[in-house]
Model the fold of this input.
Amino acid sequence: MWLDSVAGLGRGVLTALERLGRAHLLLLAILLGVGEVLRRPRLLWEQIYNIGVLSLLIVGVSGLFVGMVLGLQGYYVLSQFGAEQSLGVMVAASLVRELGPVVTALLVAGRAGSALTAEIGLMKATEQLSGLEMMAVDPVRRILTPRFLGGLVAMPMLAAIFSAVGVLGGYFVGVGLLGIDDGAYWSQMRAKIDFEEDVVNGVVKSLVFGVFVTWIALFQGHDTVPTSEGVSRSTTRSVVHSALVVLGLDFVLTALMFGD
Amino acid sequence: MTSRAPIHEQDARPDQEPFVADPDVLVEIRGLSFRHGSRVILDNLDLDIRRSGVTAVMGPSGTGKTTLLKLITGQLRPDAGSIRVDGEEVTRLDRTALYRLRRRMGMLFQSGALLTDLSVFDNVAYPLREHTDLSPSMRRKLVLLKLEAVGLRGARDLMPSQLSGGMARRVALARAIALDPMMILYDEPFTGQDPISMGMLMALIRQLNDAAGLTSILVSHDVRETSSIADYLFVIHEGRVIACGTPAEIAADRSAWVRQFMDGLPDGPVPFHYPGPSLSDDLHSRASA
Done:
């Protein structure tokens, strides 16, 4: 009985390792197509539009509300120490360092990542990828690589927009509703937010999240079982795996960037 | 299509028999075996497809017909055996050489496999854009001519979601002939078609083959339709060729399996009942429902 359990565990580990291997081979194939995509930039613009521009609304609205909540929560905490004039710093640092990259990555995984997985999975199920192969067109280079690069470019931009809109949301609550000084909100932010330590590290985080979220979404689509149930499962896995990887990576990156 | 001796005795062929190239043969398959997990799909298969004819591979569902097409086009790699297409050993081609060979092949998938985000026109233009340096006006003329050949010039601005199943396959056929290939492979082209669409597809397959001097390989289990347009038939079962010949020769074949398949008999060498315990044993067993 226990031998069966051990064998089952072993099979599970081997299957997971096999999938991990396939995912890395797919990433390699995707990267080998980068040069071709850069020679045909229209393929890239289309995907930046699909992944980036079409995610703007959800990212912008989420950024606004997250910034407003940060303004409220931050004000009540800071006012206990008489430091409510530092609200701008707190809002900006929270957004640029953490919430901007992380929440944007989670939102992109939910909106664009799931769409990518479903699109690639359905293309596989309806033999469109095989059709491209038969037309002597490499589907990885023509379909997957532009989407990968599109995600990579769009993610930092969306994170920046999320943070910028969030800072405005904090401003509306802090200055507009709670009466913090307008000048203090902006000047303290400008004085305390360091470009390299805060902004660049935030951009690096969102780039890393962009790689993983898009890679996971494309792999799940490409590796899907070509049935309606298979596509459904892959889409769910894409969002769940992306969320877990983003949160795990965020801890690792934060420790590396800001840990002593 | 010249007739050949039936290959009922293919099993007697030694594995290392020297390969003799026949210039009339476009696709030469020798000792082809393919497994999916532990299941044998194709088992030491020998098959020749002659040039400039319509050759059909028939057999019930699940006998490896589509797998055979995927092996011929290099989408799958066999476990053993050789596949030569126009003298090139497909199993040993690298990616570049395989893609070069595929530009000379067209394939009509069962689903049509049209790119759903492109219009009919753009679907047919796709291989021309990818593989030629033709000017836009020349490309347009070619696309319109290909669509005219399948009777869908007027549908060029429609999206794939606006097409019926038969129209989608005709568009896919126009796309498959866009680069003027030497060979077209059809995967179950008649499945799910109404009589009018089926008649159109049958006429198109035959006419395109004869007008353009193509070689056509047709995989199907639609006996009557396939027999009416094919020059030569292979009947496969459990991964082996069990009969081959002209449609007239196959129609005259008296072997029990061929008769069951060709006449659509419900019982015979392929039993009606899936193997299992006897009904009496099942009814008296204590297993709960």
Notes: Strands of chain B lie at 25-36, 39-50, 54-58, 80-85, 88-89, 105-108, 183-187, 215-220, 232-237, 240-245. Chain B touches chain A at residues 73, 75, 99-100, 102-103, 105-107, 109-111, 113-116, 126-127, 130-131, 172, 175 (CB under 8 Å). The first strand of chain B starts at residue 25 and ends at 36. The mean pLDDT of chain B is 85.
